[in-house]
């Protein structure tokens, strides 16, 4: 979509029917690209990239996951009157597990050959990694970035089931589902509390807050009254201001954390709320969506999952050549993207295609419309 709009169009908001009719949100893929690259630059860019605050960019993934998974489920429910948990779980299995376990296996082989399987503590973390308890590992391993998968996998298991359980509600559905969602967050974190070191407790709860904010945004936008609250923000001119404001906010995370006494846990919910507003701008017509829908960003975004998981291996390659700094971050990103291209061609796409065949064997004759630029 061109970023050049007629003068009147700059103040034309997106309609609710237009939003529901949109099955393609390519700008969200661009958001994933920027989030993944920001994380890599934070890990390997050194002090020069501290102001980018890439450490918090993973919350964009969480908000985006909550938003997209809930949007898909609600639209499926509207089309067919129900949400198929079987199809949802099968899609997640074939989307997430092949790349995750392949990279885990390759990492295990590499450190075993190097004779550091025990000393790297990968052996200690392996029981957690095999059951997606990654976020409970409070020590460094050769597969460190996988912690976010542990958070998301629990969300993938619990949240769709709660949507099904609350589908009977015909009045106050959004409020009821939000209540169940909050209960799910409390339940998951309380269950994990005895398993987690004390300093991990805050991180468990705050990450689920980001996921729930994404879920709430999806529920509000899906229903006419909720959408009406955000409709003024969907004007292209307003969406552009929101996009620019988020960039400023991204660079202000550090000062905000200092203002809150250095407690990053207090910053995350604020950042997640800002991310939700950014998603409203991204699904709206205008320059923000056009920029984030550009071919370079969607190319990276389509490979962001594998890029994110492969960054440690990529840093092992770039570390031979460069010290920490912008150059190393750029080279690490390039190498990780190359790994991701291979994984997408030979692992992700074949696994997704096979998953669709498995689902199709028992699916209705009419294929459901999916929202493009889904979660990982």
* β-strand number: 0
Q: Tally the helices.
A: 16
* Dominant shape: globular
- Give the H and E element order: HHHHHHHHHHHHHHHH
Structural class: mainly alpha
**What is the CA-CA span between the terminal residues?**
24 Å
Proportion of residues in extended strands: under 5%
Poorly predicted residue ranges? 365-369
Largest sheet: none
The helix fraction, in percent, is 55-70%
Integer average pLDDT: 85
Rg from alpha-carbon coordinates: 21 Å
Describe the 3D structure:
Helix 4 runs parallel beside helix 15 and helix 10 runs antiparallel to helix 12. The chain starts with 15 loop residues before the first helix and ends in a 16-residue tail after the last helix. The protein has 16 helices and no strands. It is globular. It has 376 residues and is mainly α.
Summarize the structure in short.
The chain has 376 residues and is mainly α. The chain has helices at residues 16-21, 26-44, 58-80, 85-113, 122-130, 147-165, 173-192, 201-222, 224-230, 236-251, 253-259, 264-282, 287-292, 295-302, 304-318, 326-360.
């Amino acid at each position: 979509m061109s970023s050049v709009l007629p003068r009147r169009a700059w103040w034309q908001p997106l309609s609710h029917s237009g939003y529901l009719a949109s099955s393609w949100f390519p700008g969200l893929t661009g958001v994933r690209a920027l989030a993944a690259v920001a994380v890599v630059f934070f890990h390997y860019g050194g002090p020069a990239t501290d102001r980018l605050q890439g450490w918090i960019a993973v919350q964009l993934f969480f908000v985006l996951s909550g938003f997209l998974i809930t949007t898909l489920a609600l639209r499926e429910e509207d089309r067919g009157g129900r949400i198929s948990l079987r199809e949802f779980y099968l899609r997640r299995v074939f989307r997430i597990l092949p790349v995750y376990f392949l990279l885990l296996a390759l990492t295990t082989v590499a450190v075993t050959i190097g004779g550091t399987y025990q000393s790297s503590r990968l052996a200690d973390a392996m029981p957690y990694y095999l059951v997606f308890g990654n976020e409970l590992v409070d020590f460094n391993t050769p597969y460190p970035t996988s912690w976010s998968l542990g958070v998301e996998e629990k969300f993938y298991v619990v949240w769709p089931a709660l949507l099904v359980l609350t589908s009977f509600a015909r009045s106050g559905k959004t409020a009821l589902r939000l209540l169940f969602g909050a209960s799910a967050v409390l339940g998951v974190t309380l269950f994990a509390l005895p398993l987690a070191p004390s300093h991990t407790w805050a991180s468990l709860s705050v990450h689920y807050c980001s996921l729930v904010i994404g879920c709430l945004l999806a529920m509000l936008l899906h229903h006419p009254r909720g959408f009406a609250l955000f409709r003024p923000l969907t004007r292209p001119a307003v969406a552009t201001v929101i996009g620019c404001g988020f960039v400023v906010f991204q660079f202000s995370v550090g000062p905000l954390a200092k203002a809150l006494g250095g407690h990053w846990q207090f910053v995350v919910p604020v950042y997640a709320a800002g991310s939700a507003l950014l998603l409203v701008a991204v699904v709206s017509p205008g320059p923000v969506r056009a920029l984030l829908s550009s071919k370079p960003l969607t190319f990276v975004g389509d490979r962001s999952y594998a890029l994110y998981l492969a960054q440690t291996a990529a840093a092992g390659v770039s570390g031979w050549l460069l010290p920490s700094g912008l150059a190393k971050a750029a080279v690490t990103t390039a190498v990780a993207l190359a790994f991701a291209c291979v994984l997408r061609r030979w692992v992700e796409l074949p696994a997704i295609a096979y998953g669709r065949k498995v689902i199709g064997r028992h699916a209705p004759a009419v294929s459901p419309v999916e929202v493009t630029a889904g979660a990982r």
